[in-house]
Structures are given as C-alpha cells and as structure tokens.
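Run log // design_07
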C-alpha cells in the first residue's frame, strides 16, 4: 500500500467526525502549539508515515489557539469561549485568590471566578522550553503561555525565587494530601510546563503565594459527557473525542502494557481496536481532559479517571497498589538538555523526597494523582535510582497508553525548518548526543546509559574528555559546586546526574 493511503484514511475520518460535531462541543480542546518533531532526545525532520517516531503531537493539528485582546484588561479565547484577565498582578495566597474573585471588576464584569485546573490548562502551550531551575538568566527562554496576550514573569532569583517559580493557582484541590500531609491545590506552572499539586501552606503555617488569572464564561468547560458504546469505545460528547475503554495493560502491549515513548507512538498508530484503525496517542491536553480530579488512590481507591474507563492496576515503587502514568504524544523540550515525554499521572505522582537535614530519601506522593510531568523517553530506569529533580520525581521510562481518535486532528506532513542551537544551548538537531559524529555512550537508548559519559560528551567541545568552566552550560556558580576536586574541570563522576534533568 502507498504510505500516503493511511494518512488519507485518517484525514477523511477526522474531517467527517469534526464536521458532525461543530457547534455542539462545550469543552473544545485547544491544540498544544507543538509544531516540531523529536526523537528520544532532539528535534528531527518530520518522520514519515510508518517510520519511527511517527504519530507524535506535531503530526496532528487540532483547534489552533486563537485569542482576542479586548483592550480592557481581558482576553477572550475564541476556541473555548472563556474570557481571562490578561494581567495576573501580584502573587497571593490561595485563600486570597478565592476571595478576590468576587471583588474583581476588570472589564466591568462581576462574575469572575478562580479557574479550575482544566480551565487553566487550556492556556498551556508546549512551544515553551523547560529551564534549568538553578539558572539565573531567562533571556533565551520561552514560557508555556502566549505572552502576546498574557503578562508573564519568571521567578526572581534576587528575591529568593527560582526562575521556575511562576505557578498559577486554581480552585481544584487534591482530595488526598501530598508530601508530608500538605493540603494541596493543583496549579499550572507556565515557566516549566507542568501541572503539580502545590501546598496551600508552607512549613510553619506560612501561606504559599501564587499568580492568579481569573476567568469567566462557558461554565460547562472542563465537564465531561461520557457515553459508553459497549464496543470498547467511549465518546466524550463535550470534547468530541473517542477513547479506548481499555488501556495498553489490558491489551498486553509491550511488556504487560508498559511501553517507552517511541513504542507507544508506534503501538497507537498501528492499533486495530473496536473495528477502528484511526487511533493515535493523545496529546497532553487531550489526555488531561479525561482526568477526574475528584478521584485518587488514597480516597476513592481508584485512578483519577471516571470509572467508566478500565484502568490497569500496578504495584508502585513502594509496594502499594497504584495506577499508571500514561504517555502523551507531546514532547517536553528542555533548554540546554534533551527532550522528555509528557505524561499524566492517573495514580500517585511519586517522588523520592530528600530530607535536607539527614539526606535520607522517602518515597511519597509529591504532586498528586492528576499531575502532568515528563519522563525519559527511553533507556534504563535503574540508572535513575534517586528520581529526578528537587522532589525526586520517579522515572519509569516505560509507561502505559490509552489511545484516542476523533476530535480535530488534521494530519501534518511537514513542519518548520529545524531549529539550530548553539553549543551553549546543548544538543543540536540531527544528532541525539549533541556533538557531530558522536555515538551513544554505552548501549544506546534501548539499554543502560552511562549518564556521566553522556554529560561529558555533550559538552566536551575540544575532545579532552572533561568539561571546562568555559564549556559548562549550566549556571556559572554551579560549576564550583560540581567541581568537587577543585581542578577546574568536571569529570564523568562529577556530572550532575542525567542530562535529562528537569525543573521540579
């Protein structure tokens, strides 16, 4: 068969479904804005149908973001029908954010509300770059929100913040607790592109403060209307998306349902299920649309999803009954590092949290069921024994998948020209290790990786087998912290862990 034929079939199916649903959707999903394609680590030329890494986010264009600046301090989202403040103002506590909505009079309106996590997540754009939380400079960074319409500020290191401290509040509370019993609110971080459960109160009962964007209009946004067709498919009449009732675990894909990112893409594209062949791996915003934030393992003894869906139960790293992370087709692009794959945690979002006094790490639910984080796309999870980031996010590398079809998903065959990055910005397109003609350090992405060797190979421009201060691309003051023998160079055993290092 001609390789174009599968694309034509999918396009006709998608266009037919979309035309039938126009005007009926109360919860239309805005596209993620991701137009570039990636392999396990770097940007690549658009993969063709049936080739590795085909079926990722950029291959399917959804409802394109469209905003109207009303010139009165408000912005209308022409896809969702929601109206937003354009200026978040000063940070405030959760209680202040809740109380302030009824007092807001921007644009002359009196019906402002604190958004739900699903409303706020409609604004996220995965054209952003995830920064190193230790960095101080933000000039080359791009946030995960459209700054032409919304005012955005990174955290101010001079004021004691990390640059990633740009978390926005919502009205959605976690029904369980995170960390060591924190009362928790789900928020969106437009600096690093994540949903996490954030504490309402800090130690000592101090109130944590957040940015706030109030919203009004379309009260049905974020409310699902699921219909089980009895054939293994579930339609959400609110979004127009059609979902698998089962997941990859029930269908025994990969290793008992566990797939790395490339395997998940391939499985979705080749899936024949419920008499359909137009399945795809959902993008981040599509998958987040089916999270049920009223459900979680510790309270409802279930995944954070409507019980109309079948979910494979797992045993987590602490030996408890839990539920999977599910891959999306969206890449999480990092500054000065490699890309990761975005996932949604339908079970506990676990981390190995370190006690700063003792150094002891404790496994706990650090961000809540319903969090959106990212994972290494391939490799050996045993190479990441301490998790990743300040909260020690658990890296599983192989996650589960639940496929989708329908909605608005216009297949794309090409994207923008590859983005050239300087050596100071890390990996360059066309070479996953960041240096010309450099192969993988030990075994490739399918086997164990020597992270220290990878770090040195990525930055060692003069080929002397070590990284000088001039070659180092992290925060200048961090070089001295890593250089434990004070010889002016970083060796493999002084590398700062995996190059897939995130913000928290």
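design_07 sequence
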């Amino acid at each position: 068969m001609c390789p174009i034929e599968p694309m034509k079939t999918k396009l006709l199916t998608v266009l037919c479904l979309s035309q039938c649903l126009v005007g009926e959707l109360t919860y239309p999903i805005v596209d993620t804005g991701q137009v570039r394609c990636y392999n396990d680590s770097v940007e690549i030329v658009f993969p063709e149908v049936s080739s590795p890494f085909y079926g990722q986010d950029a291959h399917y264009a959804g409802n394109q973001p469209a905003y109207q600046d009303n010139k009165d301090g408000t912005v209308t989202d022409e896809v969702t029908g929601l109206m937003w403040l354009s200026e978040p103002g000063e940070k405030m506590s959760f209680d202040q954010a809740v109380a302030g909505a009824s007092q807001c009079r921007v644009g002359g309106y009196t019906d402002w509300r604190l958004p739900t996590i699903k409303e706020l997540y409609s604004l996220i754009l995965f054209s952003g770059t995830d920064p190193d939380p230790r960095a101080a400079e933000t000039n080359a960074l791009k946030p995960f929100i459209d700054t032409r319409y919304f005012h955005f500020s990174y955290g101010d290191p001079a004021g004691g913040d990390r640059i990633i401290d740009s978390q926005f509040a919502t009205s959605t509370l976690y029904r369980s607790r995170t960390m060591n019993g924190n009362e928790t609110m789900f928020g969106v971080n437009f600096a690093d592109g994540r949903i996490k459960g954030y504490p309402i109160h800090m130690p000592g009962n101090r109130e944590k403060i957040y940015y706030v964007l109030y919203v009004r209009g379309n009260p049905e946004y974020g409310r699902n209307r699921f219909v089980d067709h009895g054939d293994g498919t579930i339609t959400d009449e609110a979004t127009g998306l059609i979902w698998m009732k089962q997941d990859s675990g029930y269908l025994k894909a990969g290793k008992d349902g566990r797939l790395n990112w490339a395997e998940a893409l391939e499985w979705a594209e080749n899936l024949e299920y419920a008499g359909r062949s137009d399945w795809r791996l959902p993008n981040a915003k599509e998958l987040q649309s089916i999270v049920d934030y009223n459900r979680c393992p510790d309270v409802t003894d279930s995944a954070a999803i409507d019980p109309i869906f079948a979910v494979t139960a797992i045993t987590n790293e602490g030996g408890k009954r839990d539920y999977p992370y599910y891959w999306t087709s969206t890449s999480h692009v990092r500054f000065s590092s490699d890309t990761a794959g975005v996932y949604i945690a339908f079970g506990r979002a676990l981390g190995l949290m370190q006690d700063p006094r003792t150094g002891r790490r404790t496994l706990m639910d650090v961000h809540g069921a319903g969090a959106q984080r990212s994972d290494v796309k391939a490799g050996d999870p045993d190479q990441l024994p301490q998790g990743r980031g300040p909260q020690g996010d658990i890296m599983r590398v192989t996650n589960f998948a639940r496929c989708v079809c329908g909605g608005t998903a216009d297949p794309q065959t090409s994207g923008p020209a590859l983005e050239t990055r300087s050596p100071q910005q890390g990996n360059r397109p066309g070479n996953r290790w960041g240096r010309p003609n450099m192969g993988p350090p030990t075994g490739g992405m399918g086997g164990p990786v020597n992270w220290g060797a990878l770090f040195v190979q990525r930055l060692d421009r003069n080929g002397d087998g070590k990284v000088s201060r001039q070659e180092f691309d992290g925060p200048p003051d961090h070089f001295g912290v890593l250089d434990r023998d004070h010889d002016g160079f970083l060796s493999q055993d002084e590398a700062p862990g995996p190059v897939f290092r995130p913000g928290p």
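The radius of gyration is 22 Å.
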